[in-house]
Amino acid sequence: MQKDFIAELQWRGMIHDMMPGIEKQLSKELTSAYVGIDPTADSLHIGHLVGIMMLKHFQDAGHKPIVLLGGATGMIGDPSGKSKERNLLDEETLRVNEAGIKKQVMKFLDFDASADNNAKLVNNYDWMKDFSFLGFIRDVGKHITVNYMMAKDSVKKRLSAESSEGMSFTEFTYQLVQGYDFLHLYKAENCKLQMGGSDQWGNITTGTEMIRKMEQGEAFAVTTPLIKKSDGTKFGKTESGNIWLDPKKTSPYKFYQFWLNASDEDMSNFVRIFSTKSKDEIEALEKEHNQAPHLRVLQKALAEEMTVRVHSQEALDMALKASSILFGKSTTEELASIDEDTLLSVFEGVPQVTITKDELAAVDNATTFLAETTQGIVFKSKGEARKMIQGGGVSVNKNKVEDPNAEVDFQLLQDKYILVQRGKKNYYLVIVE
RNA sequence: GGGGGAAUACCAAAGCGGCCAACUGGGACGGACUGUAAAUCCGUUGUCUUUCGACUUCACAGGUUCGAAUCCUGUUUCCCCCA
Q1: Is residue A237 annotated as part of the catalytic site, yes or no?
Q2: I need a labelling partner for A141 at 20 to 30 A (CA). Which of A1, A62, A65, A129 fits?
Q3: Which secondary structure element, helix H or strand E, spans residue A37, and what is its range?
Q4: CA–CA distance from A100 to each of A59, A127, A259 (Å)?
């Protein structure tokens, strides 16, 4: 149809492994494919985006993407994952999470019912919840041998001598439950392809095996490499935790910053995986980037694209403004020109303290102000404050405090705020009332 | 059971009677440089304190001494060697 899906993924470096014959299948007819996501939270984080992007390209190639929420499988836990069983989610939480995730997925995939390749979101809890144990072992279990199941790496690892903990029967059964999802979708949606991270290969092939044995059908698997960062740390995490798509969990500003701060080495991977830009556009950007790496053209382009898609143009504008205040060479004047709403949203989450005008008036010098008047949020003691000022590490309203004994004569931003900065990255907002 | 050794700040590791709040390295935090990077260089790093200084630290409890992280006694923990 429009694009060659496999070729598209290939140049983007998103194919780790695939089953032969998939290309022929895709060129033959409109095909459905699914990616599974554990609904363990009411928001996706950027680690989930790899799977979502696969579906996005799949839909762009004219095929039908299905997002499968693992309401049932997520209750069990994949033995290959963190080798730890998950907590069971109750149904109410599950539905809340489902709604939150669907809202986010809609920003990537087209759910418009009038298109014949419109995206669909399903939850395996809906077909697994009424499945009886006897029904499952009779209809599904008997088609797959334990020998077959034991041969999977995820299982072997847990049975080997090095493994410190045993594997429960529930975990062992996981691949059957996941495999059954594929079978179910094959029958219900004519879904012939499952995609996922390379660690899912074994689980996916259990599904294709079931389809082959029970339906005499042919189904396929495509996996992507797990994202690695050049410094070896885990993708999608920062010191402050996961990068979520939900603006309440990760502000658009932080979201933008995450992409902007990606290292040069990682960028060529990231941009291919997460950007919808064409090959020509990306290669042109890379060329531009390599000519002037310090401008970080690639990081900016991807950060902008991602922020607009996940949040909005307004959110991006705000993030840009916040970034220029925090990291640019902005002056007290610029700071003062920012309206109250913007100021507060930029410094949302920053430690704050409220003092009175009288307290401010009573302050004798900068050291006292930073240690005592502000109730210790900036510095715990005057000695500490003094040392840091002498080391040149303190700014108020973007002006460096030069002398620990300087008199306090700060301009109030918007008539009520004082912005204190310790080092480059630690901000404190003092509210004067 | 017998013999030997070790315990020092966030970590590692010097110090073996006064010049020790304790060398040095790492880490952390600041500064300069830079691309909100890497590398490099500089500063701070027991607490409080404007300088001076004061106070609490070198496993724990006592002791010797004008003075102890350093010497003595006991206690605890760890390591090694021989049974």
Answers
A1: yes
A2: A65
A3: strand A32-37
A4: 21, 21, 23
ipTM of the complex: 0.81
**Residue A63 and residue A127: Cα distance in Å, rounded?**
24
Q: Name the percent of chain A lying above pLDDT 90.
A: 56
Domain A5-224 fold: Rossmann fold (3.40.50)
Categorize the per-residue pLDDT at A80 as very low, low, confident or very high, splitting at 50, 70 and 90.
Answer: low
User: Is A40 designated active site?
Assistant: yes
pLDDT tens profile A184-240? 999 999 999 999 999 899 999 999 999 999 999 999 999 999 887 777 667 877 766
What is the arithmetic mean of pLDDT over A316-340?
Answer: 83
Q: Is the pLDDT of residue A398 over 70?
A: yes
Spatial neighbors of A188 by CB under 8 A, at least 6 apart, are none
Q: How far apart are CA A41 and CA A28, in angstroms?
A: 38
Enumerate residues near strand B (beta carbon within 7 A): A 257, 260-261, 263-264, 293-296, 299, 323, 327, 367, 371, 380-384, 386-388, 391-393, 404, 422-426
The whole-chain average pLDDT of chain A stands at: 89
Topology annotation, domain A237-328 = Tyrosyl-Transfer RNA Synthetase (1.10.240)
Residue A63 is a catalytic residue: no
Residues 6+ apart with CB under 8 A from A97: A39, A40, A41, A42, A69, A89
Ranges of CATH 1.10.240.10 domains, chain A: 237-328
Least confident range of A4-13, A79-88, A420-429 = A79-88
Positions of chain B reached by protein Cβ under 7 A: 29-32, 34-37, 43-44, 47-50
CB-CB neighbours of A136 under 10 Å: 15
Q: Which amino acid is at A317?
A: D
| A343-432: CATH superfamily | RNA-binding S4 domain (3.10.290.10)
